[in-house]
Amino acid sequence: MTVAEAFDPNAITLSDRAVNKVRELVSEEENTALKLRVFITGGGCSGFQYGFSFDEDAAEDDTTIEREGVTVLVDPMSFPYLAGSEVDYSEGLEGSRFIVNNPNASTTCGCGASFSV
């Protein structure tokens, strides 16, 4: 992967469900400055785990992905692990949550919240 590919904001996509849920949550908070931050941390049952939070401000080195008025932020340490992924939203028996469909994950735990590469 070249440096140009590593910072291509189109390499991470958002599903329609994720866009709609982010829009709904931002509306509930009545703060149009909120952006969904997607990140990777160490831990979980498979070595890495996905994290999601809302931030008002993007860091200077964040990659920004925008779709239909929704903004997602990814820090430079997390981006290589997320390149090519789709951020989705799921409602099911396990509850409601954002999920990452990640082609870079060689294994994923049963709950889908952690992975290894």
Automatic annotation (TrEMBL):
NCBIfam families found in the cross-reference section: iron-sulfur cluster assembly accessory protein, PRK13623.1
GO cellular component: cytosol
Cofactor or coenzyme needed: iron-sulfur cluster
Cofactor binding, note field: Binds 1 iron-sulfur cluster per subunit.
Single biological process term from Gene Ontology: iron-sulfur cluster assembly
UniProt protein name: Iron-sulfur cluster insertion protein ErpA
Gene3D superfamilies registered for this protein in UniProt: HesB-like domain
Function of the molecule: Required for insertion of 4Fe-4S clusters for at least IspG.
Summary of subunit composition and partner proteins: Homodimer.
Pfam families referenced in this protein's UniProt entry, alphabetically: Fe-S_biosyn (PF01521)
Record family assignment: Belongs to the HesB/IscA family.
Domain Core: 12-112
UniProt keyword list: Iron, Iron-sulfur, Metal-binding
Superkingdom of origin organism: Bacteria
Protein's UniProt keywords contain Transcription: no
Lineage, opening ranks: Bacteria, Pseudomonadati, Pseudomonadota, Gammaproteobacteria, Cellvibrionales
A GO molecular function held by the record: 4 iron, 4 sulfur cluster binding
Residues reported in the UniProt entry to bind iron-sulfur cluster: 45, 109, 111
